[in-house]
Amino acid sequence: MTQTVVITGFMGCGKSKVARELAERLNTTMVDLDERITARTGRTPAQLIDEDGERAFRTIETDTLRDVLESHEAGVIALGGGAWIVPANRELIDQYHCSSVWLDVPFEVCWSRIETGAEDRPLGRTKAQAAALYERRQPVYQLAKIHISVRGHEDLEELISRIKSLTS
Ligand code: S3P
Questions:
Q1: I need a labelling partner for 113 at 20 to 30 A (CA). Which of 18, 98, 123, 134 fits?
Q2: How far is the CA of 101 from the centre of ligand 1 (A)?
Q3: How many domains does the chain have?
Q4: CATH number (domain holding residue 29)
């Protein structure tokens, strides 16, 4: 079995889209961690954070990630934006010998998607809150094995080819 590729990066950086496309190109299965959490709990990450708090959400997130990795069902995993920030999750990713890819997208590009997107993101409800979180998380995203700098104008095919060549 080839290495599982884990896609990380800030909210709005395009993790799910890139992961879906990469999985298709690699002819493998993609798991979106946030979607898996929703299927498991019957509530979205936003609802979990709002109703039970971020801490409770992070516990569920780690449990779900562990189950996905343990099952070896995914060739590609799209994390939620905060999952990589939690040390226990990075340890799990390491333990399962995954390849980690950071989609490094400028804040303004992420913010415009957060602002206009339909998804509720409780940790990025204001621009100031999102910007502070972005700055705080950059050094942790840096810890990913592969750094893909995306300026916003690249087409998806080009990005997938870059990721594919660096992960295979
Ligand atoms: C979060 C990002 C969200 C989701 C939750 C928390 C974060 O996922 O997991 O709202 O802490 O950055 P996306 O990155 O897919 O928006």
A1: 98
A2: 16
A3: 1
A4: 3.40.50.300
Whether residue 14 has its Cβ less than 6 Å from ligand 1: no
Asked whether 158 and 16 are in contact (CB, 8 A), the reply is: no
Q: Is residue 80 over pLDDT 70?
A: yes
Segment 35-48 mean pLDDT: 98
pLDDT tens-digit profile of 93-132?
Answer: 999 999 999 999 999 999 999 999 999 999 999 999 999 9
Span from the CA of 49 to the centroid of ligand 1 (angstroms): 10
> In sequence order, which residues have a C-beta less than 8 Å from that of residue 27 and are 6 or more positions away?
none
Q: Which amino acid is present at 34?
A: D
- Whether 121 is in the pocket of ligand 1, judged by its Cβ within 6 Å, is yes
Beta bridge partners of 31: 77
For residue 44, with 0-12 CB atoms within 10 Å meaning exposed, 13-18 middle and 19 or more buried, which class applies? middle
105 alpha carbon – ligand 1 mean position (Å):
15
Q: How many Å lie between the centroid of ligand 1 and the Cα of residue 79?
A: 8
104: containing domain: 5-167
End-to-end CA distance of the chain: 12
pLDDT at 92: 98
Is ligand 1 within 6 A of the CB of residue 9? Answer: no
